[in-house]
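re: the backbone from monday

yeah here it is again, tokenized this time
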């Protein structure tokens, strides 16, 4: 038995996705433990849930920039934004492979790459360029890593779960599945 077709409303979907992004940005301004933020999850979500690749990259990074303008700019912004752009690419990969396990794995991978990339930049800027300096930099950053993992896990759950709930309540925002191409 075929299910009746439903009209897809892409403008409502973009509005819903934008609303979830706005909620995540506002959550960044609420007092929180260091590194317990929605931005890593937001980048994964943008890559995975926006059909338009440009929006998937632009909206999360624009949200990050707007909130950084209010919270304060810093010297590591290019590295941090580059790391979040990697998360968007991880989200793009997740787009067609989204299961609970792959989402959890990509969330973990995003947290780890953020930790490695941003702390490597810290080492280059503020630590002696020796093996001991590199180890000292990563060891000093370890107390913040569990908050990154926890924040990414919580906000991935909120964003992906929030969209799933919205799609269930408002079927018109559900993205139609691509039909296989027959040769």
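seq for it, each position gets an aa:
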């Amino acid at each position: 038995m075929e299910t009746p077709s439903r009209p897809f409303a892409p403008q409502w979907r973009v509005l819903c996705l934008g609303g979830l992004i706005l909620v995540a940005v506002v959550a960044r301004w609420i007092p929180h433990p260091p590194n317990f933020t929605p931005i890593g999850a937001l980048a994964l979500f943008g890559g995975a849930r926006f059909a338009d690749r440009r929006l998937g990259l632009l909206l999360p990074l624009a949200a990050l920039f707007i909130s950084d303008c209010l919270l304060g700019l810093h010297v590591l912004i290019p590295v941090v934004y580059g790391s979040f752009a990697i998360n968007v690419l991880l989200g793009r990969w997740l787009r067609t492979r989204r299961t609970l396990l792959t989402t959890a794995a990509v969330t973990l991978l995003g947290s780890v790459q953020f930790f490695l990339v941003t702390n490597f930049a810290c080492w280059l800027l503020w630590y002696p360029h020796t093996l001991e300096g590199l180890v000292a930099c990563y060891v000093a950053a370890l107390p913040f890593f569990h908050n990154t993992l926890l924040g990414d896990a919580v906000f991935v759950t909120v964003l992906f779960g929030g969209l799933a709930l919205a799609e269930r309540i408002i079927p018109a925002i559900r993205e139609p599945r691509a039909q296989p191409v027959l040769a």
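The radius of gyration is 18 Å. The mean pLDDT is 89.
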